[in-house]
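hey can u check if this looks right to u? its 140 residues, i copy pasted from the old doc so theres a chance i mangled smth
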Amino acid sequence: MRHFLRFLLALAAVGLAGCTITQAPSTPQPKRSTAATLGIPPGQLPPIGQCRIWIPGRPAGRQARARGCDGIVAAAPAGAWILYRPGENRRIVRVRYVDETRAGIVVLIRLFEAATGELLGEEDPDKPGRGRGRRKGQGN
């Protein structure tokens, strides 16, 4: 009889162990930002009035140097970004995205804040200067 009682106690203990309730940690987990950012350190941006071809995934020290903007689209390989710092607004970085499979074909233009890398808006590559979406400080 004792063996039977021990068996029942052991069986109950195993059954109860499977029914334990675990609580989620009380410390809230930080949420990841879904905001688009440029992801290029400000010190790597081209000087005002110049351009730079940027290859995503390549280390900053292995990127091309800044240069004049004449003919830069034709020189940009497929998948590259062309960074431009306009003289009329020094706080902006204008990024032209070159098609992933066709060199020299710009498919998207985005405007970022130079200091923070925050996305400010987009432009149609066929109509530069005409924004799509909302730009910081402007309503729709």
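The CA atoms of residues 15 and 104 lie 67 Å apart.
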